[in-house]
Amino acid sequence: MKTLASILLLGVVASISVTAHADGEATYNQACMACHMTGAAGAPIRGNAEHWEPRLEKDIDTLYDHAINGFQAMPPKGGQLGLSDDEVKAAVDHLLEPVL
Question: What is this structure's pTM?
Answer without folding.
Answer: 0.78
